[in-house]
Design a protein that fits this description.
The protein has 74 residues and is mostly beta strands. Helices cover 0% and strands 61% of the residues. It is globular and about 25 Å long.
């Protein structure tokens, strides 16, 4: 298994996310995605439905620019 990170979601819920190569999985919900590109502070990820999401990381805060949702990494 890859690196596991813990995040607080926009609704206050806790999520554990693992990345194994290009596959990202939210262990709390079972949802998976595929990392298309990753430049450190920004990443493009397709979700399990094939929708493309652009993520921007600023310190401990990660924002999905496609949906406006933010997560705080602990």
């Amino acid at each position: 298994m890859g690196r596991i990170s813990s995040f607080f979601g926009p609704d206050g819920s806790m999520h554990q996310v693992t990345r194994n190569g290009s596959v990202v999985t939210d262990l709390s919900t079972g949802r998976s995605g595929f990392v298309v590109s990753d430049s450190g502070s920004t990443a493009m990820v397709t979700d399990q439905h094939g929708d493309l999401h652009q993520f921007m990381r600023n310190g401990s805060m990660t924002t999905d620019l496609s949906t406006g949702r933010s997560w705080f990494e602990i």
